[in-house]
Amino acid sequence: MQSRRSRLSGSGNIFRPLPLIVFAACVALSVSLCASAKEAKGFAPATLVEAANYLPCGDGCSALSDPASAFCFRQGDQVLVGEGKSYLHEGKFSSLEELAGKQFQVRFNGRHLWMRPPGGATVKIERGSRFENFKDAGCIREVRRPILKAAYAHKRPGRVPAYAFALAGSGKGDLYLWFQCDLDPHASVIACRKWYENGDFIGKDWYCSRTEDGAPVPADFEIDRLLSQAGRLVLKSGAVVPEDHRARTNDVLDRPGEACR
Predict the structure, then answer these.
(1) Residue 186 and residue 249: Cα distance in Å, rounded?
(2) Terminus-to-terminus CA distance in the chain, angstroms?
(3) Residue whose C-alpha is closest to residue 123's, from 141, 151, 153, 96
């Protein structure tokens, strides 16, 4: 009589690994399906507000610089911005700006954003953007939020007053500047002293004491620090305060009777 050991040996033994292979394949397939389900579950509809191509290096670009494509989405009350370089996604960004107002499928984490246009393939881009020319206020705020956060994350230079605040720079190499603005009711003008990131004093910017709509700027005016930047002041009310381009010598108007312009 054969022992139990001998019955399990021999030619029948070649079939023993098969269940393990099948089991491993099933496990791998299940993991793959779970991963796909998790990824699909993370996607949600979002509206493409704006998209544009730009050169992140600005005026310092070389002839061989690659453009970036910037995107702004609105998903419920949340605004998301991201961008990708064209050499990484050749052809995948073409004509996407024409889909503004359309719904995409989007998912994101702290560093990346995955977007799927209607009828198209999913593209992974970087979260955040330095594109300064979005028109939508929500998109602009989302671009500048990390810029101002970075300003306050550093120790304030000793030459910058404690009551000065950070604003996005002019887009010419200065990521942000320090500002301190006061309304001079006698001169009917707003004078803003400004400093570079390192605390070096630049000088003053001048703004009219009336908004673009002609309304007087109140004495207790508040500046929207996310919508404003060097050369453009926006009040909390949304009103824009135009820059004063009148000629001055040592901060004194060359033509005192000239209206603010």
Answers:
(1) 18
(2) 111
(3) 96
Q: What is the pLDDT of residues 70-82, one digit of tens each?
A: 999 999 999 999 9
Distance between CA 89 and CA 85 in Å, rounded? 7
Q: Which two tokens stand for residue 78?
A: 């949340």
Reported as type and span, the H/E element at residue 163 is none
Has this prediction a pTM greater than 0.90? no
Asked if residues 220 and 158 have their Cβ atoms less than 8 Å apart, the reply is no
- Report residue 175: phi and psi, to 5°: -60, -45
Category of 231 on φ-ψ map: left (φ > 0), alpha (ψ -120 to 50) or beta: left
Q: Which residues contact 237 (CB under 8 A, 6 or more apart)?
A: none
User: What is the β-pairing status of strands 252-253 and 248-249?
Assistant: antiparallel
Give me the amino acid identity at 124: K
The DSSP symbol for 204 reads E
Element (H, E) at 183: strand 176-184
Please state whether beta strands 44-54 and 123-127 pair in parallel, antiparallel, or not at all (unpaired).
Answer: unpaired
